[in-house]
Amino acid sequence: MSLLSSAKKTPIGTLQLIADEHVLLAASFGELSFSEVSLSGVQQVKKIPIISDLIDDYFDGDIDAINAILVRQPGPAFSQTAWKAMRKIKAGKVLSYADLAQRSGSSAAVRAAGTACAKNGIVLVVPCHRVVKTGGALGNYAYGLPAKEWLLRHEGAL
């Protein structure tokens, strides 16, 4: 497995990326904690083909560009379903944690939906920032509410 790592400067901080060819495995505005793969063989590159360009396009205003990025991350079954549901939230829209739980197969699993957001290892591309509290309050975001608010404004949701 030939892993590539890159750091992209964005309007809300440096986005750290790890990919296996054209599949994004991890993305974080902080330090990456990607324990499923040994990072000793990771090649640091200026740009990851396709992925870096699509992220640039997103920040340049093509808010749907990130939909074309393939992703893969380890996690339990409910989280996998929740992450797939998050990817279906259109840019410019938000979904409540309760609605995310329902779309993930269990309307009673609101806390598990929140946990899936918190444990999402592919920030931005698996858009946990589009999940808000019932009633529209922003809720939490691992990288701070100003970053979540910026992303939602950029996408036209606020």
Automatic annotation (TrEMBL):
Pfam families with a match to the protein in the record: DNA_binding_1 (PF01035)
Keywords from the UniProt entry: DNA damage, DNA repair, Methyltransferase, Transferase
Reaction equation(s) it catalyzes: a 4-O-methyl-thymidine in DNA + L-cysteinyl-[protein] = a thymidine in DNA + S-methyl-L-cysteinyl-[protein]; a 6-O-methyl-2'-deoxyguanosine in DNA + L-cysteinyl-[protein] = S-methyl-L-cysteinyl-[protein] + a 2'-deoxyguanosine in DNA
Cited Gene3D superfamilies: Winged helix-like DNA-binding domain superfamily/Winged helix DNA-binding domain
One GO BP: methylation
InterPro entries: MethylDNA_cys_MeTrfase_AS (IPR001497), MethylDNA_cys_MeTrfase_DNA-bd (IPR014048), MethylDNA_cys_MeTrfase_DNAb (IPR036217), WH-like_DNA-bd_sf (IPR036388)
CDD domains attached to this UniProt entry: ATase
Alphabetical list of PROSITE patterns matching this protein: MGMT (PS00374)
Record-listed E.C. numbers: 2.1.1.63
Database matches in SUPFAM superfamilies: Methylated DNA-protein cysteine methyltransferase, C-terminal domain
Methylated-DNA-[protein]-cysteine S-methyltransferase DNA binding domain ranges (all copies): 78-157
Top EC class, one word: transferase
Family assignment from sequence similarity: Belongs to the MGMT family.
Listed name of the protein: methylated-DNA--[protein]-cysteine S-methyltransferase
Provenance organism: freshwater metagenome
